[in-house]
Every structure is written in structure tokens, then in C-alpha cells.
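Hi team, as promised in this morning's meeting, here are the two structures we talked about. I've kept the exact order from the run log so nobody has to guess. The first one is mostly here for context; it's the second one we should focus on when we meet again. Sequence first, then the predicted C-alpha cells.
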Amino acid sequence: MGRASSHRICGLRTSMAALALILAAPGAALAADMPDFLRGSYSPSYGRWDGFYAGGHFGGSAMSNNFGEATRDELAFILRNTTLEDQFSPSNWTVLGSSSTNSLHYGGFFGYNWQWDQLVLGVDVGYTHMSSMANSANETIARTVTTTDHIQHNVTITAQSSIKLIDYAAVRGRAAYAFGQFLPYATLGFAVGRFNYSNTVALSDAQTDVTTPPGTFLGTFVDSASDARDNTFQMGFVGGLGMDMQLMPNLFLRAEWELVDFWKVGGILTTVNSGRVGVGARF
């Protein structure tokens, strides 16, 4: 083979190598831009949420109160050992109804998360202070009944009740599922609330002997009773739904709805619905 042929072969090889490099460069860049699963590998698409965290929140709450049994004990005490109570139980009559109110609130929270892949379980402790959460009811009812001793009773009951929720603390278990920068979760636990309440009831019983028409008026029995306490504590159940969103690896925003159903306080049933937003940090 001549020297000219050798030069032509070397030049051809050099040109082919250069062309291969030019063609390979865009392919490598394209491969680098492919999603992990197209390149044959996969990395987790969710954040880390394990460890301790703490933060603050604020929002609004709506409180619903059922006052139907608020003055039952006081009325039963007034009518103790009477034929009227034995036969007609005025203490069980529903005098007061239900009422609702609302308030702003603020507070804080802290907790700990355990994470297994996308499953996150945790314990959360929160405190909520109400700006002004007070509710009340007052009503009067009148009934006429005749007992077996032939006494007609014209009964009038006037009742007043009020309640104020000062604050509450909640201990909740959390179950969550992480995806991307989001952590939706559900909570379930118990709460302890601090209340002020006051109940007052007045009874008027105009009695008439109906054995001989038109009846003999016997007089009017009048009495009243009350019960009031400040800073009394009561437990309740709590549940809710929420979403945490990572802003940075150790900083997150929180949006949450929470329902607290308290046991009776002074005979008053209390339910609190709260919506809030907050910010927290992981440690």
C-alpha cells in the first residue's frame, strides 16, 4: 500500500472518531436530563420528616354548646322529696337550647415523627388559647300538671347558663403519608380544656287543690339555685386532618382542621371546630 493510501485511511479514521464524539455529546446530555426511572434507576420522591419538631399556629374556632341539661341538678335539688318531682320530673324538662359562638385563637405545638419510607407516624402535643370564647343561653317555660294528690301545679321555670372556654391542650397520635414536599395526615387523641361556667334556675309553682271545683288556691312555692365555677378542667376527644409542606429541609408550613368534643362541664356539652395555619421547624 502506498504512502498516499495510508494518509487517506488515517484521515478517514480521524473524521469518523470526530463524528462519533459530535453525535455522542447530545445523547449524553439527553440521557442526563431523563427522569430517574427512564435511566434505569430511581431515587425517593418524598422528603424526610423524622425527628423532633416544634412551631406555632393561629386561626379561628367555632364553639357549639348544648345547654339542655345545664340546670338539671339545681332544679332537682329544689324539688327534692316532692310529689311533683316524683311524678313529673320537672328537673328533666329541657328549658335551655343550643347556641354557637366563635373566636380567634393562637398557640403552639411540638412532637416527634418516626418514618418508614413514605409512612410517617408520630405523637403531637398542642396548646390553643382562645381570644374570647364565651356563650350563654336563657329561657323560660311554663307547664300545668296535676299530681295524684289532686294538686294542680302551674310551674314556671326560668333558667340561665353561660360558659367560657379559656384554653385547651391536646395530645394526639398522627398517621401521615409523605409525597414530594407534602405530608397529609390524620390525628386522633384527647384534650383537656379549662372553663368558666355559671348556671342559675328559678322555680315558681302556683298550687291549687282541685278536689272541689273551682278549686282552692294553696299558694305559690318559689325557690332558686345556682352553681358557678372558674378554672374548672374537663377532658374530651380530639381528631383532625392536616397538611405539612416543606419550605426547606428543616422548615415547614402547616394547615389543619381540628374537632374537639368535650365531656359535660356543669351539665353543658361543648364542641369546638378549629381551622388554623402555622409554621414549624424540625430538629
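And here is the second protein, the one for discussion:
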Amino acid sequence: MEIRFHGRGGQGTVLASVILAKAFFQFGYEVQSFPLFGVERRGAPVEAYLRLSEKKIRICSNVYKPDHILVQDNKLLNHVDITKGLKPGGWILLNLPRLPSDLEPFKGFKLAFVPASQIALKYGLGSKTHPIINTAMVGAFAGILDMPSLESVEEAILSEVPVKQPQNVDASREAFESVEMFGLVD
């Protein structure tokens, strides 16, 4: 399974891929996690990738045809083709409080959304203008696939996130429980 993360510098996009990789590893999978940076600055678009398998992974390349996509910043929808290469029927997880009004760009894919920014702010993660949403997005993604287990996600957060650990665990748990799945967009 291959997963592509879209976000902006400073949102914790790369750390989200690492947390999810560690959770899947604890869940018994072989994993690869790596970022792709353009200009390394706060606010610049960032991609990160996660590859997982029950067998040893021998591929050493970027992820060009992901099974699923996580979009941490919904403003990227206007600037980046987030569905590029996405396999038909793959999940797209959006950081939005509700279903987007225009579903046309998501035809042929399954759509899920979670108010990760609001959840992060509720738990004091980041600031009002720059909420840190990575743990909420990871929790929501685990909720969509029903794997890795929430316990594996929480253990990965505790081992990878050095600050506000209880708040990050709570954010992931709330997102896991509150992610809304729309299903296949026709």
C-alpha cells in the first residue's frame, strides 16, 4: 500500500508520515517513509510518502500511484493536483469540517473529511493561525482504514512527538472517532 501526504511546511506533514509508518510497523508491517521537499520554508507545499507491505519492500522510488491521499491543507486543492496518480477507488482524507461543495475533482475516489484544525486548536496544538494537525490526521486515517490500531497510533505518537503528548494522543483519538466517510464519489 502506498500513501501520499500533502501539506505545507510547518504543519507536521513529514512527522505525520513517520508516525503512521511507526504505527504500521508496530502493527506488523514493513514500512518506508520519506519526504519530498521543494523550497524548505514554512508554508511551502510539502509531500511525504509512506509505503507499507507484509513483505520486505525492495522499491526505492517516490510514490507515483498512491492507494490513498491525506491532504492536511485544503487550500492546496486550488494549487496542487492532489489526485494525480491516485488509484481508482482510493481514499482522499481532507482536513475540512464538512464535505466540500464541489465534488467534481473527487469523482472515482472515496472521500473522507475531519475537522483536524479545530481538533488541534481544541487541544492547544499550534496556534490559531498555524494549528499542528498531524496527529489528528493520522488518527482519522487509521479510522478510515480501520488500521493500524488506535493503540499503535498512540504508541507511535508517544515515541515520536516530544511535546504535548497527552494532547496529541487525545487529538488523534478524537479524529479517529469523528472522521466522516462519504464513500465513492460518482
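Starting points for discussion:
Strands lie at 2-8, 30-37, 45-53, 68-71, 91-95, 110-114, 180-184.
Residues 13-26 form the longest helix (14 residues).
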